[in-house]
Amino acid sequence: MSSLDLKLVMLSVAGSDAKSLPRLRKLQSELTSFLIGSSDKLESSSSPLRLEKSKTERPRRSNMLAEEGPRLFDEKLSAQQKITLLNKIATVKDGTVAFEIPKDLELTAFGAEEEKVYDACYIDDPADSAEPRYYPPLQVVILIVGTRGDVQPFIAIGKRLQDYGHRVRLATHSNFKEFVLTAGLEFHPLGGDPKVLAEYMVKNKGFLPSGPSEIPVQRSQMKDIIFSLLAACREPDLDTGIPFKADAMIANPPAYGHTHVAESLKIPIHIFFTMPWTILPGKVSESVDSYQQALTWPTSEFPHPLSRVKQPSAYRLSYQIVDSLIWLGIRDMINDVRKKKLKLRPVTYLSGSQGSETDIPHGYIWSPHLVPKPKDWGPKIDVVGFCFLDLASNYEPPEDLVRWLKAGPKPIYVGFGSLPVQEPEKMTQTIVKALEMTGQRGIINKGWGGLGNLTEPKDFIYSLDNIPHDWLFLQCSAVVHHGGAGTTAAGLKAACPTTIVPFFGDQPFWGERVHSRGVGPPPISVDQFNLTKLVDAIKFMLDPKVKERAVELAKAMENEDGVEGAVKAFLKHLPHQLPECRPPAKHSKLPPTAKKSKVPPTKPSNPPPPKPKPSSSFTITGCFGCA
Predict the structure, then answer these.
(1) DSSP 8-state assignment for residue 105
(2) Do residues 103 and 155 share a domain?
(3) What are 366-401's pLDDT values in tens digits?
(4) Cα separation of 321 and 316, whole Å?
(5) Sequence-separated (6 or more) residues with CB below 8 Å from residue 516
């Protein structure tokens, strides 16, 4: 798919049924009356709106971006104007948004000047060295949408919060109920099927649909998720019947609707994610100058991972453009749930996906030694470190795998976790041939993609299902995977040179970060995956200098505790006054120091928080595949 009609995004807003087509055409016609700039006018209404560039159009498009780009930050911009503006300046391709700006355009045109620099690029202690304020036991809900790898770091965070004496409910897809319960957390189901979501994302290369037939899939999944969020925050436990009412919320961005539910319940929300997603607050002020005082502000150091822009002056703008396109596709569903479930007034096209009037604290789950905190991110944004869930301590590998590992040198791991592979047999043949040509042994993870089915056994190949990466990668010399944040973290922690084969989303972002750090070759897009590129990548990883850099990075990450950093960031940004906190359920376990605290719930003081007890070990039958 070389380009995507903007009408697909508009159709997603209008709905996917045939009755919506007249509405779409009417809207498309109405857009032609909007003027861009002082003299440029839209083309005839008979020509369809397309997110596609032509050679003759580029000079005019660049001039429009220079004049009109800053208006994407204007909350008075109407829906029709925003759609028209996006159509004029951006191209949606392979699930990402591409645009360019004139080379002579000053940074100040997009609020990207370097004046706003915060003195906070935390390396030694990502979540700040100050001890967080102590709070009586809270009931915390964690809303997570995604694959098993997206859920896994939040299980670690939830367990640590539980160690501090808080009651934690992790709400995610039903597929992961056993995973959550086995970890000792409470579970509540969210809508959406992670397998369907993964297939959709792989097919469409991201969130935006690649054709009309994909729109119903996207909207059905998103609606199920959005309408399940409120129940996860206040309904009793479905198995035990124990009442639950959230005092605070943690969520990842794909759980669209989280901020609106938090608004309805009047509880604080903290967003954590594995890729940069901070956008402008929904409503700070009408002027760009006031926006620059916001504590959560998009960075100008790198672009949104779902955008394709090479000019640094457009990095900050990329966050607003991506959010605008996504928001146009889900706004009607958000307003539907606000009216029917949350009893809130509808929000406008101008509000953005968060629709919040205040700065929402953000925490990013990656190592500051891999991607340091940008200097223009304010104090409400933390880089906490990778969050690992210890799955290796109680893991017992199959005896035949142990024998195979002992029979030769360390192998190279190849696997794509929960992501479906379009031609698994062909990809398996390519992997086997590349390993054979480079004289390497290999472990192939079957995952959801169905890799590793060989027509005849090879003694240098071992195929397996999901195994804890924190155990397996220590047995490997290098790793080849899709580039999910969790899998990337596990490989780097094990000092493995890494080749990333990105499918969509943040995976290209991590591929570039790994390569820029010198611990892996340039990422290989899954569409360009072939024998020659894989052989070259393996040779790159076998270079002793690459291994040295991987060992250095692993040592730098060794003392990081991303889970503790995330918990400290969450507690640090909670408001000083919370709604009356309820005591935890009888089955909740509190550390002794928390039980003996004499701090009255209605008058919180600021002593050091109780030190948590180490989480108890547990055994599960599998481990994360896609992270």
Answers:
(1) -
(2) no
(3) 999 999 999 999 999 999 999 999 887 788 999 999
(4) 9
(5) none
Are 124 and 254 within one domain? Answer: yes
Distance CA 599, CA 606 (A): 9
| Domain shared by 271 and 292, yes or no | no
Tokens linked to 49: 């709106």
Q: Which of 142, 340, 330 is nearest to 221 (CA)?
A: 330
Q: Model pTM greater than 0.85?
A: no
Percentages of the chain per state (helix, strand, coil), in multiples of 5: 40, 10, 50
pLDDT in tens, 531-545: 999 999 999 999 999
Pairing of strands 91-93, 96-98: antiparallel
CA distance 195 to 205: 15
Q: Which of 123, 130, 150 has its CA nearest to residue 387?
A: 150
CATH number of 537's domain: 3.40.50.2000
Q: Are both 550 and 437 inside the same structural domain?
A: yes
One domain for residues 160 and 295: no
Element (H, E) at 445: strand 442-445
Q: Please give the tally of structural domains in the chain.
A: 3
Q: Which long-range contacts (CB under 8 A, 24 or more apart) does 353-357 make?
A: 353/253, 353/256, 353/279, 353/323, 353/326, 353/327, 354/259, 354/279, 354/281, 354/282, 355/259, 355/260, 355/263, 355/282, 356/259, 356/263, 356/281, 356/282, 356/283, 357/281, 357/282, 357/283, 357/284
Range of the domain at 436: 399-557
Q: Which of 508, 535, 557 is the last residue of a domain?
A: 557
The answer to whether the Cα torsion of 438, 443, 444, 445 is positive or negative is negative
Task: Tell me the two tokens of residue 97.
Answer: 């948004």
